[in-house]
Automatic annotation (TrEMBL), chain A:
It comes from the Bacteria. GO terms for molecular function: 2 iron, 2 sulfur cluster binding; metal ion binding; monooxygenase activity; nitrite reductase [NAD(P)H] activity; oxidoreductase activity, acting on paired donors, with incorporation or reduction of molecular oxygen. GO terms for biological process: nitrate assimilation. The keyword Aminoacyl-tRNA synthetase does not apply. Keywords: 2Fe-2S, Iron, Iron-sulfur, Metal-binding, Nitrate assimilation, Oxidoreductase. InterPro entries: Rieske-like_NirD, Rieske_2Fe-2S, Rieske_2Fe-2S_sf. This is Nitrite reductase/ring-hydroxylating ferredoxin subunit.
Automatic annotation (TrEMBL), chain B:
It comes from Paenibacillus phyllosphaerae. Siroheme binds at residue 680. CDD domains: NirB_Fer2_BFD-like_1, NirB_Fer2_BFD-like_2. Pfam families: Fer2_BFD, NIR_SIR, NIR_SIR_ferr, Pyr_redox_2, Rubredoxin_C. Pathway: Nitrogen metabolism; nitrate reduction (assimilation). This is Nitrite reductase (NADH) large subunit. [4Fe-4S] cluster binds at residues 636, 642, 676, 680. Its cofactor is FAD; [4Fe-4S] cluster; siroheme; [2Fe-2S] cluster. InterPro entries: BFD-like_2Fe2S-bd_dom, BFD-like_2Fe2S-bd_dom_sf, FAD/NAD-bd_sf, FAD/NAD-binding_dom, FAD/NAD-linked_Rdtase_dimer_sf, NasD-like, NiRdtase/SiRdtase_haem-b_fer, Nit/Sulf_reduc_fer-like_dom_sf. Binds 1 [4Fe-4S] cluster per subunit. Residues 416-465, 482-531 form the BFD-like [2Fe-2S]-binding domain. Residues 627-766 form the Nitrite/sulphite reductase 4Fe-4S domain. Keywords: 2Fe-2S, 4Fe-4S, FAD, Flavoprotein, Heme, Iron, Iron-sulfur, Metal-binding, Nitrate assimilation, Oxidoreductase.
Amino acid sequence: MRYYHVGSVELFPMRLGRVVRLNDQQIAVFRTTEGKLYALENRSPGPKGGTIVEGIVAGEVLYDPICDWKIGLPDGCVLPPDEGKVRSFLVDIRDGEVYVGMEE
Amino acid sequence: MLEREHLVVVGNGMAGINTVENILKLAPNKYKITIFGAEPYPNYNRIQLSYVLEKSKAIEDIILNDWQWYKDNGIALHTGATVMRIDLAHKQVVTDSGVQTGFDKLILATGSRPFRLNVPGSDKQGIVGFRDIDDCERMVRAADVYRKAAVIGGGLLGLEAAKGLLKLGMDVTVVHLFEELMERQLDRTASLMLQAELEGQGLKFAMGKKTTAFLGDERVSGLQFNDGTTLEAEFVVMAAGIVPNAELAKASGLEVNRGIVVDDFMRTSVSDIYAVGECNEHRGVSYGLVAPLFEQGGVLAKHLCSVETKPYEGTVVSTQLKISGIDVFSAGEFMDAPDLAIVRMHDEWRRIYKKILLRGGRIVGGVLIGDGKESTRLQQWIRTGTVMTDAIHGALMGAVEAASGNTVADIADEEIVCGCNGVTKKRIVDVIQEQGFTTVEEIKMSTGASRSCGGCRPVVEQILKHVLGDKYDSAAAKKEGICACTTLSKDEVVRNIKEKGLITSKEVRYALGWENEEGCSKCRPALNYYLGMIWPSEHVDERDARFVNERMHANIQKDGTFGVIPRMYGGVTTPEDLRLIADVAVKYKVKLVKVTGGQRLDLLGIKREDVPKVWEELGMPSGYAYAKALRTVKTCVGSQFCRFGTKDSIDMGVRLEKKFERLDMPAKFKMAVNGCPRNCAESATKDLGIVGNEGAWEIYVGGNGGIKARLADLLCKVKTDDEVMGIVGAFIQYYRETAKYLERTSDWLERTGLENVIATVVDNAEKREELNARIDLALEQVKEPWRDILDNRKLKEQLFEEIKVPAHHE
């Protein structure tokens, strides 16, 4: 596991997703009202595909902008009644700087 | 370079050319194409021949592909050339003039011809079919010389031919073998109504008559029937059905029954040879209508271009009589049968007959006479086998209360109720019984049923009613909250916001006891709208509560790129603006420039990070093509240039668009202004449509041309331009204040009632002024959003720019 420096927390608006491009991966990073940051692969788990960075964030849940499925931000798991999982990445915040962890 | 395969098409009609057009779209360079046509014309619209006969259209008007089209697409076209033989051994076709052409693939699209009675005298002069332009011209010429005509065949084609001849001034009698007209599409009641209607228009009928001979010397003078009677006729049209032109195929050794036998991919019994359209026979059926031909052509083209395709499995044919003054529609099954339940309405005073046939609760057929308004939807319901619901019943039959819930009992347990999410009836019944659910919302949250398109919601509700029986509490069910977070309805939420003075959505959720602290994807955008509508100057728009397009002020596309549509007031632009748009489109490598349905230009395929740059360089306001707000005001040319224009529609359209743009509404809002009643800008399908007359403007509201089509209702007529502005302002504000979020004017109008809207907006001057004062206040707050984002560097970055991380960085 290796942590990559992404930038300051200020880069991430509250309850709006932002794309981070890391090792050719598109990662959608979300900042919740409580100030937590979560990183998920920017790919919808639904049948129609698409990206998830444009979704609506409510608490620790992301509403998929295309299929309206509920995705748990901490682990990327889709909440009932739907099923599925989005790949999630670890995020570390140190001194207001954000680091995203990725397997090497 | 690789030699292209040679595709030869025999038949230059709609079936063959439609297939070729599809092939050109899918794989423009795959085939070298040669087409043989027996008629000396390019491809024309055979369905509209009756218009040529009626003289309401000229031959040029019904040409679908002109000579240039063949040239442009590199197609070798041989007209007036009849293919006589297919040489299977050498894979070539041979024409009547002896020309031999080799092929790799061969499509037979030879069509059909009128069925000709084989009785004594059928070779006399003055007897024609009704099939091609030649026949049409012969009929028109005959009408000049002769007076008495007979049309053999009381089907669709025969009636259209008869009506055409009648219009040309002939005395026309329709001779039909059966006692009822259109007996293959209509039941007895419907047939008799149709006959009465046509008799009223001047047609005569000889029903139940079999023609046994044509009388006369060289030229026909009359018909002899099997019952001994005769009919005087100087001109006879045979329109008693069609016969597939399958002789060529048969002579060449292909399998032929009634038509050329094909499988689900239009393959004949010989490999590399295909047959499409009226000449073929698919699963025992030869179609004589246009819809199946297009479906077949689509499948064949994909097959020939190696594009994956579903097999063609037949078509539910529907019939619509193209005779002015009579609505006749029929699709699917139409005769009573023991296993069918029939919904029937027969109004002899209004001369309306409607009949819907159900099998196991599903709509499998229908007949409409005298009122064809719902024919398009009915056809769709039949095609998809939709379950009858109160709502559908109401739409078709008028709002008569249906007996409750009998139809859902007929649905089998394993049948899918919600097609979007694959939820069966059993699943829904199970959750109601096991979890004790009492509302559709609970069912939706648990199973997903009715969540996506919402089309099955009435069925889910009926199932709920059915399972709960007496325990079903309609009040409780209706009192469902605006989303799963609350039990409060829209009206209650709005009242509370006003009474308690709640300004932010967080306050609303907290004060009104929301289940989820931060709401959900349903209530977040809704609350943001209600708050902005109630507190136009106090509420700060919550960007994180907006759906993506409204948040970014651009239309996201399926590949993650964006579409940008600049404002073009009234659909009017200038050469300078067009040049600028073109330059920007080239610079940012726009993938597609599309003229939209609302008369604007859409630049598609713009990369996310380029979107603000495109805005900046265009320097034009946002066209709001993504918003729940005024989209466009579509206008016709109007009195500035049009010879028919009585009013300056462009000027009025621009004025309206400039005044009401950018204001949030419950749903998208489309407008149109027309300079005369010809209505070229199509007011009848707009949320608000204006039609200019000599001396007055008519204002129509609640139209919709989308998912659920609805014709607009007349709200009022006014004289001056300022009156128009006053009525429109009040109407929009009344809609903004009373509609549910996402509710289009069409649904809202049906819910609130046209009379109520007229009473508030038109008849009550005081209320109208108050509404206008409130909308003016709201309009003062709007800002141009593209400029707004461009001026806010941080916001622009957050919305449109990715963060790129160098890979080696620790």
